[in-house]
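Hey team,

Filing this mostly as a record. A colleague (T.K.) asked me to run one chain through the structure pipeline before their review meeting, and I want the input and output archived in the tracker in case anyone asks later how it was produced. No errors, nothing strange. Just documentation.

Input sequence:
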Amino acid sequence: MEGIKILYVEDEVYLGKIVKESLESRGFTVRMETEGLAALPAFREFRPDICVLDVMLPKKDGFAIGKDIRDMDERIPIIYLTAKNQPEDVLKGFRSGGNDYIRKPFSLEELIVRIRNLMQLTQGRAPSANSHPSGDEVHLGRYTFHLLRYELRLGEKVQKLSHREAELLRILSEHRNQTVQRTDILKRVWGDDSFFNSRNLDVYIKKLRDYLKEDESVEIITLKGVGYHFAVE
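Output structure:
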């Protein structure tokens, strides 16, 4: 994914320079701005592939910038960076058009994994032989999974998905009627296969099973010590 253009808005100059240089060393092209009012002109001129926005910015905060960017481009991925950790802040981020939300302090590896995951999701890039076409809809039994909108639909019922729920379901649906290794899922969605992330995966699998429970032809089967088999008739 070298050459991906990132608009990065961060008012902590020292932190911003470290992140910018680190991303550029990995092959990304980064334009950094340090105040909110500069973000939209930079967006129009730079035409990035993805935006990484700090929330607490002078003159105009990241949520307001994200909303304006989303009004201009409904598909571009947006990641928010923030020291806030209240659930209402997370919800506000998603309501303002964000696709993902990273709490400070964060590791560069985590940021890169999130960027790559979002680019795969929004551009239809997937490594599997069963990867999805570039369209938004994936049919899973009676359900329709909208990748770009993070929605799972069954008739008139709509289940909104978080970024990680959507990414996990995308990976499983790429490997429908196949076995996918638990370690592979952890590395793609969380960036590593630590014990803590492994427990998180259990929680997310339980959530997806609950979302999919109304169609018995769709089942996530646990293969103990191996991973999961996503059975779709």
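Quick notes for T.K.: The two ends are 34 Å apart (CA to CA). The domain at 5-123 is CATH 3.40.50.2300 (Rossmann fold).
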